[in-house]
Amino acid sequence: MEGQNLRMDFGRVILGIMVSMPNNSLIENRKSEHIRINLEEDVQSGISTGLDQYDFIHEALPDLNLAEVDISQSLFDKRLVLPILISSMTGGTEDALRINTTLAQAAEMAGMAMGVGSQRVALEREEARSTFQVRRYAPNTLLFANLGAIQLNCGLGIEDCQRAVDMIEADALILHLNPLQEALQVEGDTNFKGLLGKIEKVCRALKVPVIVKEVGWGISGDTARRLANAGVQVIDVAGAGGTSWSQVEKYRMKDPGQRKVAGAFLNWGIPTAASIQMVRQGAPEVKIFASGGLRDGIDIAKCIALGAVVGGVAGGFLRAAVKGLDEVSALAGIMAKQLQISMFAIGVSSLEELRQTKRLEKID
Fold first, then answer.
1. Residues 81-94: tens digit of each pLDDT
2. How far is it, in rounded angstroms, from Cα 59 to Cα 56?
């Protein structure tokens, strides 16, 4: 019953978003449609994250005090109390501002990082900017701006990237990659030719780090190498195993033939666990953010043991944000405790030790 009530409450939020939008805003309508479909339809990827193929080797005699197991670290000259990223989600409407405000307050309280949703709409419409501007609620939080990388081939330039960063006083800029999603969208932008060179120019021009993120199909080792050579400092693998955006796009389609095209990609993508390893091998100098189907603190622990710096979670925090700040804070606390106990139970006392552990094994 609680889940049903949450679903109804979330539905009211989405309905509010849709009602508050101008009729002529195609971008905002698409965003709201995406959220509605995620709520109402089964859009889970047909493949797993691959994290279920790994187990920690239990340590029955850890030479540790649980209270001294440290899950904090420094990143971009700021202290992260928890190695958790509230992954980029929303913005552009008054209801989105409420969600972003709640998430930002929770990130500040818990010491997590946070990314905002794509700011393209805020670059085009001044009245949408305030829905992304959450710095006043999170003065010490590691905060990331966000734009679709493909927009660099559609008229946006270095100045726009800087505007996105300045708009929210961000510590870094996320450029997200979504070629498969764009290819399936009727209104998608599909000219990715020459995009790497433009990403490189952004990396050279901006004073803040550039993060490149997939949206749910993972990043391979050779792509990671090219991105690292271009100056990208962080890669968020966003691997397969969570939400499949090909399935989200399928439910937007009216034509049966188009639905069949999109539906065929249910099992597409690089699983999260595999993508982390590919990126680590292909570009060992870059920092890795792990996202894509992470469900709890044990998943985050596995990702860090595979080489990641932080674990990113979107859907869980969004559902919690609908219920309020206390719910988001509680979820963060649960994940943090799961992570800390996982580390204690394999005998490591820091995140750096976790990244070096030999106690994660692949199941035959």
1. 999 999 988 877 77
2. 9
